[in-house]
Amino acid sequence: MNALRQALISASVIAFCFAGATQAQPTFQSASPTAGTSTSQTANANADKAMYQAIQYQNAAKKGPALVVIPGEIKSSNATFVQKFGPTNIADFAEVELSRANFQVLERTNLGPLLNEFTLAYNMGDPNKARQYLGMGKLKSTKYVVKFDILKTEQVAAAQEGFDGGTIGRMAGILGAFSGSRGGAAAGAVGGTAVGSVKTGDSTGVWIIGMRYKIMDAETTEQVAQGYTEEKMEVGATGTSVLGVSQSQQGGVGLDTMVQRLVQKSVWEIDSKYK
């Protein structure tokens, strides 16, 4: 009896430990040689602001209709953006957020080779062609087809400012030399060197990125609703150098994060208006 009780206690302990282990999300340490230093802390604090932030969709408790996200269009002429992003990347972000908002999202991978034809049918507004696909498998329950387009990516503002102490430093040295005393000349030389070593600079660029979403009736291909939202993307750098000691920072939210945030804003509106 004691042996049985001991076995039950051991099994309970193992189950408890296993349950605790599965509940804890894995964490990882930095392998950088500068981890824990002041530069690391500053860089990580800035990076934390660009981390993914989950949105609490107000109607997430309500189950949304079945829908398919098809690749949209990127109408920006910005070469950097077009090179980095494709419509599929944006649709991937959209599937994640729509699923979090409790919509029934049909994975595009389930469409297989039909995806291009399916997308073309809706982009061309061809209801007859669309109905051919809607009779296939899981597509039968589809109510909406949603697409997200990038309409704008442009740098709208930039600013720079800085200070170079070289000129003032030279003037301090000259004034010291003309002071008439050896001490004044020495002080002027030291002061000129110190002031002349001071260099500071700041630069900031601001971009505006705009996204449009469209919701289409899965059967008729007619547009049910659309919306548009914009976000500012700010990138900057700052640096200071005094007597050979320098400090600099640079950063900002990247294009990946900006697209994800625009998708989140769009999905928030879809969740609140069209569920």
Give short descriptive properties of this protein.
275 residues, Rossmann fold
- Overall CATH architecture of one domain: 3-Layer(aba) Sandwich
The number of strands is 6
> Average pLDDT, to the nearest integer?
73
Question: Going across the major beta sheet, what is the strand order?
Answer: 2-1-3-4-5-6
Reading the helices and strands in chain order gives: HHEHHEHHEHHEEEH
Structural class by helix and strand composition: alpha/beta
Number of helices: 9
CATH homology-level superfamily of one domain: ABC-type transport auxiliary lipoprotein component
For the CA atoms, what is the radius of gyration?
30 Å
How far apart, in Å, are the first and last alpha carbons?
Answer: 59 Å
What global shape is seen? globular
CATH class of one domain: Alpha Beta
| Helix-residue proportion | 40-55%
Instruction: State the low-pLDDT regions, or none.
Output: 165-179, 182-197, 248-252
Q: Assess the beta-strand content as a share of residues.
A: 25-35%
Main β sheet profile: 6 strands, mixed
Provide the CATH topology of one domain: Rossmann fold
